[in-house]
Amino acid sequence: MSSTPVPPDGDAAADGSTTDPVAEPVTIQGHWDFGYTYFAGASASRFFNELRLNQRIMGTHCPTCDRVLVPARGFCDACYVEIDEWREVGTEGTLDSFTILTTSFPGLPEPPTVVGYVTLDGASTALLNAVHGIDLHDFDEAGALLLTQPRVRVVFSDKCEGRITDFAFELVAADA
Amino acid sequence: MPRTGHGLAVAGVGQTPYRRRHEGSTPELVGQAVREALADAGLTARDVDIVVGGFAPDGLAGENCPDKRFLPAACAIGRWSMRINTGGTTGIAAAYAAMDLLEAGRGDVAVVVGVERMAQANSVPAVFNSIFDPIYERDTGLSTISMGALRATRMMARWGYAREVWAQVAERNFDNASRNPLAQIRTPYGAEDVLRSRMIAWPVTQLDACPVSEGVCAVVIVRSERFEGSGRPLAHVRGRASVSDTYNMGDRVHRPIGNLEDMITLSRSAERAYAQAGISDARQAQVVEIHAPFTHAETMAYGPLRLCDAPDGPDLVRSGFGRWGTETVINPSGGPQAANPVGATALIRLAECAQQVMGSAGERQVPGARVAVATGQGGANQFSTCTVLSA
Fold first, then answer.
1. What are residue B44's phi and psi, to 5 degrees?
2. Where are the alpha helices (DSSP H) in B160-294?
3. Do B146 and A101 touch (CB under 8 A)?
4. CATH of B8-122+213-227 among 3.30.70.240, 3.40.47.10, 3.40.50.720, 3.10.20.30
């Protein structure tokens, strides 16, 4: 049986008590644990290799709408054209949106932690990643600070392996 | 109201109760809802020409390619049939596919069914993480709740929404759900309960978010000329439109038209559906069923549905607009906050609107409901639909 606690509201299975043994509901345990290998593709491969080898954050420029897409994409889906013009963007930017993850779920980051969309200087689009170093003892207070859309900077991990998790953001003002 | 296309109407609805878990097998639940819908329409399996089924991510139910098993239970044997999946909009996308087939002349009667068995998953959030881009985003731990919360904080910064405003939205939805025997959550939680409930992804609490829900919704859609003069109630489809957007949420943050929280796909769907139906805004409807799995998502739809200008959303909530007993009731069913079976939920919005204008909504019937608006929202908030029904 699942170890997930069942809320009191609306569980038909919990309501359906029966005294007839041949009507007893039968459950069968199942498991999906297939392995997969995802090819990142040409543009994301170059984006990740630039992270790993040069600690640079790269975008691609769309000549039609003049946006610099970060993280890099091989096509602009708004203009529906292929793009292959590479631009390095800044390692500082603005936290445009965030959430504080406050509840633990299997397979997801251990709370409390912050993720947010950051527009790096020189980019036209925002990039999702973890935001470290926020005082989270009071979620409403932390939220009020982050709602001011503060400046953040990129912090690379000690060992970059070519994943989006090679870097995170932290507040620029943390040093001030 | 003008009619579009060949004249389509919802003729019958069948719904299992929505519960956290159901003991029945998927085909058993599908058969139960479809038989009820056919009986409600005064039809039998022999009358059915088309069967379209909606089932959202296979991984949620742990049933891979479930169409093989559930379509036959929906009366598909010997008939034109397909399965649709567009995440949250799955159920209404299935209905639109059926309507398109009816308009194309493939038949006169279609069965549409939306199915959800997500409680079969031992960890729903982990499965929801797997629906995101595995290259750039999945490693960040993104799930549907954090995806929603990333918009909620922008609404706070831009339009002055606060957790207290959204708690009032939840209170109204739970009050409405107390009149709906099909609803999963029938406890009339108040705004204080919502604010005190467990924080999941700030600012979204457990009671701001939809529950894990299972159930099946079935709808019978017909070419209405075949039923003219039959004396049976019909919910006529007066307008419908569907619009899609980019997957990339970060690309929408600085978009001058269609910012991340603007729901431009819903604006454009509503504009087109309203024009077909000859209405100018959702205040001309007596019932609005908004497909929003979170309180903030419901308020994000107010501007696009032309209930108010987007910056006036917090004031609209504070005014009590949309409550039971007012001229336009939002979510008389309780909405997705009271039950959100993913593969069915957008079809439930249509089914509830149909029953309201047919006068068969029971205890949750809005007196005098003639016009109803149903929305659907899916993907990374990138697929929208808007349907206008009338008696």
1. -125, 175
2. 163-177, 191-196, 264-277
3. yes
4. 3.40.47.10
Residue B285 pLDDT grade (very low, low, confident, very high; cuts 50, 70, 90): very high
State the pTM of this model.
Answer: 0.95
Same fold, B8-122+213-227 and B124-208+236-390: yes
Best mutation site among A15, A61, A100 for testing chain B: the one with the most B CBs within 10 Å?
Answer: A100
The number of residues in chain B equals 391
Rounded Cα gap, residues B157 and B166, in angstroms: 14
In the CATH scheme, what architecture does the domain B124-208+236-390 have?
A: 3-Layer(aba) Sandwich (3.40)
> How large a percentage of chain B has pLDDT more than 70?
98
pLDDT of residue A176: 47
Residue B383, strand partner residues: B244, B378
Dump pLDDT digits (tens) for B238-260. Answer: 999 999 999 999 999 999 999 99
Residue ranges of domains in chain B: 8-122+213-227, 124-208+236-390
From the CA of B328, how many Å to the nearest CA of chain A? 28
Burial of B277 (0-12, 13-18, 19+ CB in 10 A): buried
pLDDT tens, position by position, B135-173: 999 999 899 999 999 999 999 999 999 999 999 999 999
Q: What average pLDDT score do residues B330-353 get? A: 98
H runs (alpha helix) in A31-83? 42-54
